[in-house]
Structure formats: structure tokens, C-alpha cells
Amino acid sequence: MKKLIIAIDGFSACGKSTTARQVAQELNYRYIDSGAMYRAVTHYFLEHHVSITNPKEVDKALSEIRITFIINSKGETETFLNGINVEWDIRSMRISEYVSHVSALKAVRVAMVNLQRKLGKHRGVVMDGRDIGSVVFPEAELKVFLTADILVRAFRRQKELLEHDDLIDIDTIVQNLEKRDKIDSNRLESPLIKAADALSIDTTHITIDEQVDEVIRMAVTKMIPSKKEKV
Ligand code: DC
Predict the structure, then answer these.
(1) pLDDT tens-digit profile of 73-104?
(2) Best mutation site among 31, 32, 34 for ligand 1 pocket (most ligand atoms within 8 Å of CB)
(3) Sign of dihedral through CA atoms 133, 134, 135, 140?
(4) Res. 226 pLDDT band, cuts 50 70 90
(5) How remote is the CA of residue 11 from the centroid of ligand 1, in Å?
(6) Which strands sit side by side in the sheet containing 77-81, from one edge to the other?
(7) Cα 168 to middle of ligand 1, angstroms
(8) Strand, coil or helix: what is 199?
(9) Which residue has the CA at smallest separation from atom 15 of ligand 1?
(10) Whose CA is nearest to atom 16 of ligand 1?
(11) Which pLDDT value is given to residue 230?
């Protein structure tokens, strides 16, 4: 069976990561969270007071950043920044408030897209983000674009934060999501857009299991080589 590249893009908090992680697990593929990379860069920039308006500082910082993914004992992928586990730190509201500004920088995108392509080189990957189907892997065999109602997204994000005892009111989360949607969709460098050949799934009224089943169903049809490919 053909090993695929599966791109899952969409707005923040539509269930991209949860879906991508489970699809990867079921197919025995590698899961890559590209948002975690931009979050890790943002974490570094904040910790080291890197000015995003100073290209030299940005380039220097990027040359010092090493992002890796390590699978923990539960089989979950965790993000490491220069050897330190930042998986939970990068999910904070402080990072969420700033990440869209950092991820809009061309130098940051070039560095992260290079890394994403390297990680996907051997195929058999599920990668989620904003520009995976449109820019990182335009040749991906399966492209999925997730959407959901803003309030549903905000409640999902609130629940995720609460699991780590971080109680944030729903209005603050809605405002953050709306702001990020706006910046992510309107930036000059690879804005969030649905690739022309991506399949949309509205996740407002469906469960994660249903989302996962739908993506797996689509993936299976792409794994079987077409008659043309067999010849
Ligand atoms: O998926 P996420 O919410 O963890 O992503 C965090 C931010 O990173 C998001 O606001 C936009 C940016 N991002 C991006 O620009 N391109 C990607 N491929 C993934 C994320």
C-alpha cells in the first residue's frame, strides 16, 4: 500500500491536532504538529527577548533554535526546544497571544517549512497546520480542511486548558481565536487558505471519533494505487 502524506489544515481549535494524532496512530504514521513548531519558536523569542522587528536578531535566534519531537511512554509526541520538553509551556495563553505575530515572519516560515519538509521526507506522515496542503506539501495525496463554529472551538480550547488547571474565561478565548484567525488568514506569507483540492469537514456537530473515521475512510481510498499508477 502506498504511504501517504496527509495534510490537515484549518482554523485554531477545530480539532486538527486531536484528529491528526489519532489518524496517525491508526495508520501507524508519524504525527507532526506544525503549530507546535511556531509555538516553540515563539517561546524562545519571548524567553530571549528577541525583537520581531529586528531581522538580524530573528535570524540569530533561528540559528540557535533546535526543535525535535520525541514520543513519550504513552505513545504521545512531545515537543522539545533545544533539548527541553516544552510541550505544555507552549500551550499557554501567553504564547497563544503572540504566536500569530511570530509565525507571520518570512524568516520564521522559511525555517519551519524546511524542517517540516525534512520530517515528511519519508512519507507516512500526518501533519496539521495552516499551510500544509497549500505550501508545505502541495503534492500531499490527502488534504483535509477543518472548520467549526467559533463558540464550539472556544469551549473545546477552554476544556483543554482546564485539563491543566488553567481556567480562562470563554470571552478571552473567543477574542484570541478571532484575532488569530484574522492574522493567520490575512498575513502576506502563506496565509491560511483552503487548498483547491482539499476536502472540507465541518466539525461543529460531530465527535472526534467521527472526524477520525471520516479522514481514515478518505485515506484508505488514496492508498490503493489507481489503474493508471499500476501500469
Ligand atoms: O495549531 P496551533 O493553534 O497550535 O498554531 C499556533 C499558531 O501557529 C497559529 O496561530 C498560526 C501558526 N501556524 C502557522 O502559521 N502555520 C502552521 N502550519 C501552523 C501554525
Answers:
(1) 988 899 999 999 999 999 998 999 999 999 99
(2) 34
(3) positive
(4) low
(5) 9
(6) 67-71, 77-81, 84-85
(7) 20
(8) strand
(9) 103
(10) 130
(11) 60
